[in-house]
Amino acid sequence: MSRISKKKPALCTDEPLSNSTICQKITLLRNILSTAYGPTGRLKQIHNNVGGHVLTTSTSTALLKRLEMSEPLLKLISTALQHHTTRYSDSGLFMGIFTLTLIENTKKYGLRTSTAIKVYKHLVEQCNVYLKGDSCGCKVPVEFSSCDSLVALAHSMITSKPACMLDSRETQQISSLITQAFLYSIPCNSSGTACFGRTVTIGIEGQSVNHSSVFPGLLLDVPEMLLPGDLERLGDGPFKVVLFGVSLSGDISEVGDVALEVHRGLNPERDLLQQLLKIGEQVVKDKVSLFACQKVVHPVLQHYLREHEVVVIERLGLALMEPFAKITGARAVASLFSLVPMEAYGLVAGLCFQDCGSKKLLQLLSSKHAAISTMVLCHRNETMLEELKVCAMTCQRAEHVLRLTLREPYALLGGGCTETQLATHITHMNQSTAPTTAAALGISHSEFLMAVESFRSSLLAVALSLEHDGQDCLIDLTYGHRWVMDISSQTEVKHTCGCGLLEDRSNLEKTHLNTACQTFSPVFLENNDTQPKVLDSFSAKLNALNVAVEMASLVLDVKYIIKDVN
Amino acid sequence: MQQQLECVSLQVCVSVLGPLESVVRRCLGPEGGSVLFTRDTGETLISRHGQRVLSTLHLEHPMARMVLDCVCAHAKSTGDGTKSFILLLSALLRAIQDSAHMRRKASWSNPALQNLANRLMALSRNELDDIIIHQVTPYASSYCSHHSDKLEHSILDYLISGYISGRTGAGQAEILKHILCEFYYKSKRDQNTTETISFIHSHFNVLHTRVAGLPVGCSEVIEGLVVTRDWSVWTELRGPIKALVLYESFGSSLGDNITVCFQQDWLSRTESITKQKLAYLLELQVNVVLSSVKQPECVLQWARMNHVALLECVDSDQLDFLCNINFPETLSHPQHIVMLKYCKRLQLGGLRCAQLGIYSNAHTLVLCAPAPGLLDQTVCVSRGSMEGSYAGWRSFACRWCV
């Protein structure tokens, strides 16, 4: 049914960035993202005024999914942000703040957009070269011989999500759990190409966070009517295992919604049940101890198997099929009508009960070193279930970040120190070569310097957004790290810099972050004994930097918007 | 039905073209920007390609639509110059309107306008060609020379880069130009230019892959064919590989209005038919199965047991391309056997894909962009550049008799 109505003409906006409404919207989005950035970031609550789900969060993924933007330019940025966080799980807010600040600063400095785009491209290439090079002061190699850097990375990720409501001890424990789970998922002694194992996450309410732990192997819900006595009777492992991927419920619903014609004297359901029992007989004859099925098992078959001391696990679910197959080496049987082939059987080293708070779970231990582990996260009460899910998601993302680190074994200094160092380095590098670079790009010298200044102040604006309690942010003039004034005394600076690498010294000259200062080249710290306490993922931040500049260039390039409102 | 009668004067013409001009004006030239379209469905389009921008506008006035038809016809025959067309047209009409003041009249009268139109047509038919050929072209021709073979490479580079610079932002133009030239050179090897370009042009749909969420700089050219699906069953395979291409499912395909009949021995009969088919495949010594639909679980199980790699839900265009390029032995219509050089697993920006090595020079162009709107533009421009190069190369080749 189509409604016949007059087609409305499209809404056209010429030169959108000169339009004050659009600029206000850009500023508003930037404020939302800046105030949510960092460990002291403010939580945002999103709800509509007719009831419905209320979301409290400070992560860019959750925020942008729920925020509906009417302005096409902002929607573009939001989509790009979401794609980035799906891929890299981190640095979403950094990317958003940097993109929007770049756009605002380009307007503020009155730069021509084509000039700005060229210069930003040149500068981001310089940043890439610097960050990927050897003498980069903001890069820290991640040593896989000790867990400190890994735990620091996981810790930084968890602390940047204040909605989890974890205190410092709990945060420390969860970070080490994540690192533990990550290390479990790295396969050792595997032949051929190695690939990562998996960590399955289970959430349990009612316990405090301190009871969370990581177990090797797989934890499953205990099947009903399974008693500890049954397990004892099984004895010691290894136990033979069979895994079914088809439904063993004995109904013929897979045929679909068709008419059935049944010959006289035939009872299809009874025939199927006979077949299921035949499978049961074969399984018992082959001395299988654990019978698992992805879907439902017919009660008669279950009763038969239990009588013969076989543990039956049904309703495993698609998500657990792969880890189960990996742990036991069993291959899922897909057909009911033929004998189970010998190669389809698997082995499990041990079965035991585990107590996790009020819940009892069945633990499957692998006989070979399969890289599967289960992380059990506990949280206080049901109202915190939402935070628990955020925690669980955060843990998965933190693990993802650790995996990315395996590919590029570096981490960047957190706490705003990378941004300050990068800004200082870029300004210093371009001051001396400004005339030649400007000529090569085909623009004037002063335009080039203004564009560099715009880039620099955007980077520093991101570092500034980390501070929400009204403290002053400073930068030291030797190493280029970020320092914050101590809350207790208004005149003294905190003991260590933003990332925790440097300690304050009396002769370390500092100046405020948002002032113009003498350019200098940041000194490269070699052979430092102290480790930074706050680290950021290298791949995530590098990609965020590149995509941010590209999105800013794209938005600056748009000179006409046409909105079809039909 | 009421017909609206409107008296069309020169003023109306100029005002109808005004909005078109204002849109097109913003995206002309190397310093020009892009135009962003959005629909209520959320679809976005970013472009600075004149024809694309104008075709997406919803034009009500019949005169505007007529102008758009002319623009499209022009673009079809030349592939370029649509923005210049609109700007020249509006400038011409405005100049005619303003020249009324020079003749000290309020406006042009209809007979005078008709006379002017006839004289302009005579000018364009008789004199314009001469002016361009004798006064303008010599400056351009001094660029190309008679030895076209030596310059073959650079001519194509210029064609591609000229096309791209006018259609994407400065940031992406460099990268895209570089990657498209690389794509062309890698696909070429022993063939000649015309064959390569026409091959790429006709199979572009199959020879490119899109990845969203990465910067444009991550675009690359990969050998062989890339399928944006992960292997359902994977085994390591080496050497020349026999692959089976399937267009339908192995399991019983049930349509509507079918009656399933349960007879005696129905249990064993259901399985034996599928088993026979699978056993036949084993006899053929097939190592890889490429299917355009999802296969039932028993086929996956069979594949795991017999170390056969299986790729499901492949685009049927890609399968057709594989079949055509390989001169396969045809078994029976929905199955073909093709030979592959190798099969690999590939990571493209977090997505797992399959890479198939084929016995021809085809490469796949992987295009990345941070946002889907930008990705569409990148793909469009790349496709268009191949079309444009094809058209440009053909006329160039004709001219210099290559």
UniProtKB/TrEMBL annotation, chain A:
Pfam family, one: Cpn60_TCP1
One GO term (biological process): determination of left/right symmetry
GO MF assignments: ATP binding; unfolded protein binding
One of the record's GO cellular component terms: cytoplasm
Name of the molecule in the record: Molecular chaperone MKKS isoform X1
Protein species of origin: Danio rerio (Zebrafish)
Lineage of the organism: Eukaryota, Metazoa, Chordata, Craniata, Vertebrata
UniProtKB/TrEMBL annotation, chain B:
Protein's name in the database: BBSome complex assembly protein BBS10 isoform X4
Lineage: Eukaryota, Metazoa, Chordata, Craniata, Vertebrata
